[in-house]
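Please decode residue identities from the backbone states below.
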């Protein structure tokens, strides 16, 4: 399902980094980068253009030089 983050992601925290990330080999093979972190935070998301926004907990990966990738909605709040 397509969705967009509206505004900033707040309450960001690292939940895994380096070798403790299960998908580390796939991330390095597909995107490159060396210092990967799995992060979570709270964001307002919108599912339809012009539709209502809802608060959700989002998870994703990021690495220096690559940026934020593979964001997913974990729970709606």
């Amino acid at each position: 399902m397509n969705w967009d983050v509206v505004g900033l992601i707040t309450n960001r925290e690292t939940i895994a980094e380096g070798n403790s990330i299960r998908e580390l080999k796939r991330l390095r093979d597909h995107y490159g980068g060396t210092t990967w972190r799995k992060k979570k935070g709270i964001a307002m998301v919108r599912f339809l253009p012009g539709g209502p926004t809802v608060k959700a907990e989002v998870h994703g990966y990021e690495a220096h030089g690559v940026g934020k990738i593979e964001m997913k909605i974990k729970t709606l709040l």
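Observation: Residues 4-76 form one domain.
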